[in-house]
Amino acid sequence: MKILKTFKQVLLHEASIKSLSRIWQHTKESNVGMITAYRGEFDVRTNDSRNQKLATEIRSNGFGYIQVIGFYIENLGQEDEKSVKEKSFFVTSYAKDNDKLKKFLVKMGAKYNQDSIFYKAADSEQATLIGTTAGRWPGLKTVVNVGKFVPQKLGAYYTKMKGNRKFTFESIEYPEGLMSKAYRQKLDGSK
User: 164-168: which pairs have CB atoms within 8 A and are 24 or more residues apart?
Assistant: First the structure.
């Protein structure tokens, strides 16, 4: 039985390596994005139900996805700011989809009350967060560069797959609190 357990562990490890490789390949050849329907104010059952509806919408609009776990700072710059762990979707589309995936993700981000969605075009090394809700960081329709794909590294925002494989998109690091302060100033109009 121990041999079978070890064999299963080896297979799971190999599958997770291949999955991370597949994610990397998608970031090079496809338009990709990440989204969830999770919100901190809902319980797990409600969030899972919302995510099931989102998964159906992703598929019915012709996109593929890989389920992942996203780590994110929700309500950045507000009193109720908190780090959250959410079941998420790494969504893929064709490289030349005329922004169909980007538009879909922004629409779903607004529908499911997300602070932002993640998007990376196939023809760009840089990934972005696009704000989908007014009054929350990064701000409605605000685009923030989050950098290039970096496997096996953690950041303030990162993604984890089965088998403990992690990745992030790396960009400039800001001193803690600087982005939150700037966003608060933008909201209240002060300098």
Answer: 164/16, 165/16, 165/17, 165/19, 165/20, 167/20, 167/23, 167/24
Cα(171)–Cα(86) distance, integer angstroms: 22
Rounded-to-integer distance, Cα 41 and Cα 111, Å? 15
Number of H helices, E strands in the chain: 4, 8
Distances (CA, A) of 105 to 10, 49, 82, 92, 159: 35, 18, 23, 11, 17
CB distance 65 to 55 below 8 Å: yes
- Per residue in 93-150, pLDDT (tens digit) is 999 999 999 999 999 999 999 989 999 999 998 889 899 999 888 899 999 888 776 6
Q: Count up the domains in the chain and report the number.
A: 1
pTM over 0.90: no
Domain limits at 122? 2-188
Whole-angstrom CA distances from 93 to 100, 107, 151 are: 8, 16, 21
Cβ-count burial 69-79 (b if 16+ within 10 Å, e if not): ebbbbbbbbbe
**Residue 83 tokens, joined:** 């780090």
